[in-house]
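Worked Example 4.2. Consider the chain below.
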Amino acid sequence: MRWTVKADTLTAGPGHAVDDVVNAAVRAAITRLVQQHEVDFDAYAGSVYFMMHGVRGEERARELAAALHAALYGDLEPLTSAVPVS
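Applying the procedure from the previous section yields the following structure tokens:
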């Protein structure tokens, strides 16, 4: 079974904003995941919405979802740990 990871900032409320550094880090991580064939090539990394299809395994999907959520609230460490720069 393949999993989908989605996150958006729309439900965080009008005062929540993702800064450019975080946005760039999330986009880079998703790009690495696509290049490593961990997620499907149709992954989407926008300014407020992020989606990754084709994650193999529930545990990995949950790890990526938690890391993405933390990043969107300013904590990049879980994302860096889950998707290290090779």
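The longest strand covers residues 49-56. The chain has a mean pLDDT of 93. Compare this with Example 4.1 before moving on.
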